Amino acid sequence: MMFDEMAAAQLYPPQYSQNTDTAVESVTVTLLNLARPSMWDVVSDWIDRNGPIANSKLREISGLDTLGASKQLRSWVAQGVLVALPAASRQMARYTKPELLAAPDDSLYFGLDNES
Question: How far is CA 28 from CA 2, 19, 20, 25, 33, in A?
């Protein structure tokens, strides 16, 4: 019940630790009154640090199954916060943020090559 209440409040789950170094063994339960980051916040941070994300990595980060991760990725693409990168197959699909596809941040860059 405690786990459900914490999840409903968007808080981190309870953390348990066993105290065996004391005269009487005990268990300590820590309840953090901190808002848990949304799945998008976690994924956005992961993309910023590591580059494009695939379904398998989203499953690892979020705990979703394959279908759930696919639906979430499609939802983010539909919302415009992610774009699908070209891939040879759906199994190799990767996604990134649209702003990371922009032209290089160089004030002298005009999209022209030096051959002109």
Answer: 14, 7, 11, 10, 16
